[in-house]
Amino acid sequence: MSKKKKQLTKSNDKVISGVLGGVAEYFDWDKTITRLVAVVLCVFPGHVFGGILAYLIAAVVMPDADDDNRHRDDEVIEGEFKEK
Question: Which of 6-10, 59-63, 69-73: highest mean pLDDT?
């Protein structure tokens, strides 16, 4: 029995790009608190530019989450729809 390896990916529950939601899901943290802590850590010490830069790099580098619903979209059902 193989256990699926945990991977850090962007969240499908996105506010901007899903980076902080993905971090929260990876560590099993509350997403809202994770986002608030990230904003406070960027603004409070005065590293707004560094925080934004780190977020943008993570948004580019982190892979998107595998969404099971995305694969369902590939299965197209063909047919006619008629009104009753």
Answer: 59-63
Sign of the dihedral defined by the CA atoms of residues 45, 50, 56, 57, in that order: negative
Mean pLDDT of 45-64: 87
What is the SS3 assignment for 40?
helix
* CA–CA dist 36, 26 (Å, integer): 17
pLDDT of 84 over the 70 cut: no
Is the separation of the CB atoms in 58 and 9 below 8 Å? Answer: no
Residue 23, judged by CB atoms within 10 A of its CB (0-12, 13-18, 19+), counts as: buried
> What is the number of other CB atoms lying within 10 angstroms of the CB of residue 6?
10
Looking at residue 39, what DSSP letter applies?
Answer: H
Q: pTM for this structure? A: 0.66
